[in-house]
Specification:
Helix 5 packs antiparallel against helix 6. This protein has 429 residues and is of the alpha+beta class.
Length: 429
């Protein structure tokens, strides 16, 4: 009888631990990404992962409200459109999408209008620019030149901008434009939802205000409507609209990784990388191999660790974690004992450091393949010995100092969670 009770308690505990519970991410904010069909402001549950994304977002807010002593400070909705079609219609469509997302959340969460902040980017030329930068199109340079001219003429008038847009559409007999229509424009039809939390305080009466400011040098101001935004609102026509919050790559701030080159060399290893924001990250790694065959005098032993700091570069850094070109500094320390039937080399402690450069390729929204090379120095004391029957003869002790490649990696990174997307790089039609 006692055995049955103990079994029931054990099974119940395991079931409780295995139930997925949404957690409040670091930074006290939750994010979700919603996609729209061409020319539509209707939320389609079957499009991309809209149904699962919205359900997870709503469930997480409800969970936080019940379990954590805090409440939403505001919910920011950033919407926009892709760049094909009429600019005025796209501008209106951008706001309609923001209003549609707000209506959905109000229906599910019963939040007042004053909690929502709506922002419009209009036609998302910035997002298209980032997609082209991250692509492998052979004529990428020509496209970026035209896009730079279009974004530079954003405040000069629609006629000049439309003329440059026609030039882009005719580039390489229209093949470039048709490729972007198929592969890039769907990625621009996106809305970003960011819910920020604060500690619970007495409720304040709702207010309605309009804030206007610039997001970056040369960009047109974003108009944010805090509070009620009528469904018939027609925002002022203007140029480029920005306003993507930093770290829109979802909840992914951590990556687990393993160097495949070390694995091939029979040196098991594991690493951890943590995103600090603005493209910076810190990481650590550990390797441990302890193989031996005393009868054949084979020893393959090494263990040690590394610390590193990285900076990722590129226009997509704020959109996609742990991807793109990167450079950094690293420190390493290790001990080893290598012998393959002949002279052996044993080091009690070696240390070094250097400069690394690499590129991290996005394979999937939760997978990266990172290529890196490190140049630096490695120094330490070692002992040389020779096997003789059942014992080992010490030969000499020396110091080694090496300057050159001290680190190489082809690492597989896994980003836990479901908030990281592969190529959701920028905007939203």
């Amino acid at each position: 009888m006692k055995t049955n009770r103990r079994l029931i308690r054990t099974v119940s505990l395991l079931a409780f631990l295995l139930i997925p519970i949404p957690l409040l991410p670091s930074g006290d904010s939750l994010r979700a990404f919603v996609y729209f069909d061409r020319g539509s402001s209707t939320l389609e549950s079957i499009l991309h992962d809209n149904a699962r994304e919205l359900e997870s977002f709503v469930s997480s807010i409800r969970f936080v409200g019940k379990r954590v002593p805090c409440h939403p400070r505001h919910i920011r909705i950033i919407s926009g459109s892709s760049v094909e079609g009429n600019p005025a219609l796209n501008e209106r469509l951008s706001w309609q999408r923001a209003i549609q997302i707000r209506s959905y959340l109000q229906e599910r969460l019963s939040f007042p209008d004053s909690l929502f902040v709506l922002s419009s980017r209009g036609e998302d030329w910035d997002g298209l620019y980032r997609l082209v930068v991250d692509s492998d199109l052979p004529c990428r340079g020509e496209i970026l030149t035209v896009l730079n001219e279009i974004m530079g003429e954003a405040d000069r008038g629609d006629m000049t901008k439309e003329k440059l847009k026609s030039q882009l559409m005719m580039l390489h007999e229209g093949r470039v434009w048709h490729y972007m229509l198929r592969h890039f424009m769907p990625e621009l039809r996106r809305g970003i939802i960011v819910c920020e939390f604060e500690e619970a305080q007495p409720a304040h009466s709702p207010t309605i205000q309009i804030r206007e400011g610039k997001t970056q040098e040369g960009a047109s101001p974003i108009r944010e409507f805090v509070g009620a935004v009528p469904d018939t609102v027609i925002p002022p026509r203007g140029g480029m609209h920005s306003g993507i919050p930093e770290n829109t790559h979802g909840h992914c701030r951590m990556a687990l990784k393993s160097n495949l080159l070390y694995d091939i060399a029979l040196v098991p290893n594991i690493g951890l990388e943590y995103a600090l924001g603005r493209g910076w990250s810190v990481g650590c790694g550990w390797q441990y191999a302890w193989w031996k065959n005393d009868r054949r005098h084979d020893y393959w032993r090494v263990y040690g660790g590394e610390l590193e700091i990285r900076k990722y570069f590129g226009a997509h850094v704020a959109e996609k974690a742990f991807a793109g070109h990167h450079a950094g500094l690293y420190l390493q320390a290790l001990t080893y004992d290598f012998e393959l039937g002949g002279p052996g080399y044993l080091s009690r402690f070696s240390y070094g450091g250097g400069f690394e450069y690499g590129y991290s390729l996005s394979l999937h929204r939760q997978l990266r393949l990172d290529f890196s090379i490190g140049i630096g120095c490695l120094s330490g004391r070692y002992e040389q010995y020779t096997p003789a029957d059942s014992h080992y003869v010490w030969e000499r002790t020396g110091m080694h100092y090496w300057f050159g490649p001290t680190r190489a990696g082809i690492s597989l990174l896994w980003l836990p969670g479901n908030g990281c997307r592969k190529s959701r790089k920028g905007g939203v039609l």
